[in-house]
């Protein structure tokens, strides 16, 4: 059982991290079937850099060379991914066909270049680099627990890195403004379904707003979407907004689901810009008040000291 868990994590986590990359591609509107190709070319690029730095002998420098290979693997995969972007975005190629072709191209290119490089360096035209096995570490104490301890035994260095990257990616996708903007822009779901997803994300005040919005969506048909949105904005008390800010948010509701994607996006961006300006003004006002209160406090202290003297 322990062997299954240890080896399973070692093989599954690299696939897990490229699947997260595929989610980012989908959020941007690109169907990405070239993930294995990026993975293979990135590994090839990292190994080539280690060969260039060490000549193939990594004895005594396994850990530094591992992180060197990791960094260059990321760079190599990103560079190879630009080919998919070039085919799909400027040239409007079929995304599925492009992904399949890139997978085939990656396998062919890496095998060919590896054999050529090995012929030059070691005199043998093999299609693999023989470097070293990545070192492992074991977490003391918890690794002694039956079954659970296997998750903390013989861990490759890349495994915790992948877990950290996955957690950051989850936050970016589901909690950050960037991820939510990408989902709204490229989503083909009906507006009520999007509201239902947003009520469980972000700040609790926003969640409460979208929860009330979902409840009022039951009257959709008797009321227009713009009226439902405007009613929730004007009645919302958990967020302190000025009348002008509420009017700006109501204007967004008038565009949702009624105009083109570009018009809706422009209305949302205009609203965000206006609210950001208001936030900056409030921040500047708060700083001025803080300076005033600080000055008053110092003055009061001096007066008290004078009286006591």
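-> sequence recovered:
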């Amino acid at each position: 059982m322990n062997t299954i868990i240890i080896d399973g994590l070692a093989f599954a986590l690299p696939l897990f991290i490229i699947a997260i990359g595929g989610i980012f591609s989908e959020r941007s509107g690109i169907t990405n079937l070239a993930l294995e190709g990026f993975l293979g070319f990135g590994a090839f690029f990292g190994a080539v850099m280690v060969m260039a730095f060490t000549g193939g002998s990594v004895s005594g420098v396994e850990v530094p060379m591992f992180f060197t290979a990791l960094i260059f693997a990321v760079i190599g995969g990103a560079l190879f991914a630009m080919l998919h972007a070039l085919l799909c975005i400027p040239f409007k190629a079929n995304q599925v066909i492009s992904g399949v072709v890139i997978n085939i191209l990656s396998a062919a290119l890496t095998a060919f270049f590896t054999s050529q490089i090995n012929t030059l360096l070691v005199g043998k035209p093999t299609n693999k680099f023989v470097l070293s096995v990545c070192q492992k570490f074991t977490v003391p104490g918890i690794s002694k627990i039956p079954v659970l301890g296997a998750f903390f035994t013989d861990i490759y260095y890349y495994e915790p890195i992948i877990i950290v990257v996955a957690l950051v990616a989850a936050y970016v996708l589901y909690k950050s403004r960037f991820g939510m903007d990408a989902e709204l822009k490229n989503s083909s779901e009906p507006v009520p379904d999007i509201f239902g997803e947003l009520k469980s994300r972000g700040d609790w005040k926003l969640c409460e707003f979208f929860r009330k919005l979902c409840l009022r969506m039951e009257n959709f048909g008797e009321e227009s979407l713009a009226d439902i949105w405007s009613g929730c904005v004007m009645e919302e008390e958990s967020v302190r907004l000025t009348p002008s800010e509420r009017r700006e948010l109501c204007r967004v509701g008038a565009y949702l689901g009624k105009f083109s994607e570009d018009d809706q996006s422009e209305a949302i961006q205009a609203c965000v810009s206006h609210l950001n300006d208001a936030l900056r003004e409030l921040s500047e006002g708060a700083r001025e008040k803080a300076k005033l209160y600080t000055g008053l406090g110092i003055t009061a202290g001096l007066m008290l000291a004078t009286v006591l003297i």
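The two ends are 79 Å apart (CA to CA).
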